[in-house]
Amino acid sequence: MIGTPLGGACCPELRYLVYTHIWHIARVAGRMLAARFHAEICSVHMAKNIPTTLPGTPPPEAAQTLLALLHAQGEVARLSEREQLFSSLLDSVNAVLWAFDWETRQVLYVSPAYERIFGRPASLVLADYNEWRDSIYPDDLEFAERSLAQVLLKGSVEDREYRILNAEGQLRWLSDKCYINQQRNGDRVIIVGIAEDITEKKQLEGELQRLATTDVLTQSSNRRHFFECAQQAFDSACEDGTPMAFLLLDIDDFKCINDSYGHQEGDQVLQQIADSGKAVLRRGDLFGRIGGEEFAAVFPGCNAQMAEQIAERLQRQIQRLSFSHGGQTYGVTVSQGVTGLTDEDVTLDSLYARADAAMYQAKRQGKNQIVRG
To answer: Fewest beta carbons within 10 Å, which of 13, 26, 171, 222?
Structure first.
């Protein structure tokens, strides 16, 4: 550490602790030097004759002590300024700097942000580590503890993200990076870390994910997301040897609705069809809008016969819908094509093509019906 600046001689997260510790040492040293200087002055006053310092001779010990005291006071002032700087920085950072004794399971230090993020007094977690542990969202507790233990093997863990519940019961996301700081004098293992509140980032990521995968008008899966999920379901069904069914649905005479009542009315029809699909389909089924007035569904673990029964329920649900415009009431119908996975299907496209052919056959046969392909 010789020649290394003081700030670089320790983990960045603990510099504040180090500087504060040194500042207190300097204050104590300053008091000791002041006491020694006072004793020197008293001894001089008690002497009857004060010796004269000749040119070229070293200054008396009292003067040396005074110089040392002035130097120590300067160091204290500089350390005080640095402490104030670190305090202001820590107050402005939305992250908790922390230090943890692995053997004793004791939290040695948390920065001021702990009280803002967790909503609890820092004194509680300093007294009992379980204050932090009990704040972790139950579903994330096992991961949080396992990833913390990994720092003993890896030296650092930087991909820890988990949720906590603050004192008000609000869910917050933390990115909690941690590093090991093995003490040389003994086996004491200190883990230091920085836990950043990334709740807003997670919310933004969720919104971006929703926009990227959701049809804005109907709030169902968009075409790209639907076929990505459908491909995953197809791969799983082929690998596990389980059934799967595919459905295509097209609104009958939708162009007439737009031409007769306007595109706003057409949008309401699309939204109601999407809501009907979400209401009728089972949990785990996938439903999405893949074209203008075309919707699709995937039924994992479901053969063609079972899928046709679900399609019939959807058909009846849509037939019960009622719309009105300018005092005129009207309804809508749909044509559906449904098919199931066979041993000859090697790609998802084969199911899609078969369901598509069945749907157009329903159109040719008079619409408002279901055809199994």
So the answer is: 171
Q: Kindly give the confidence (pLDDT) of every residue in the chain, 373 residues in length, as a single tens digit, with 9 standing for 90 and above.
A: 444 444 444 444 455 444 444 445 445 444 554 455 445 545 544 544 544 444 555 556 666 666 676 677 777 777 777 766 766 666 667 789 999 999 899 999 998 899 999 999 999 999 999 999 999 999 999 999 999 999 999 999 998 999 999 999 999 999 999 998 865 556 688 999 999 999 999 999 998 988 899 999 999 999 999 999 999 999 999 999 999 999 999 999 999 999 989 999 999 999 999 999 999 998 899 999 999 999 999 999 999 999 999 999 999 999 999 999 888 899 999 999 999 999 999 999 999 999 999 999 999 999 999 999 8
| Residue 40 known to be catalytic | no
Say whether pTM exceeds 0.85.
Answer: no
Both structure tokens of 21: 């510790």
Q: Which residues pair with 197 in a beta bridge?
A: 174
- Token digits for 296? 């699709």
d(CA 150, CA 61): 56
CA-based diameter of the chain, in Å? 129
Domain extents in the chain? 6-92, 95-204, 214-372
Fold (topology level) of 214-372: Alpha-Beta Plaits (3.30.70)
Query: What does CATH list as the number for 95-204?
Result: 3.30.450.20
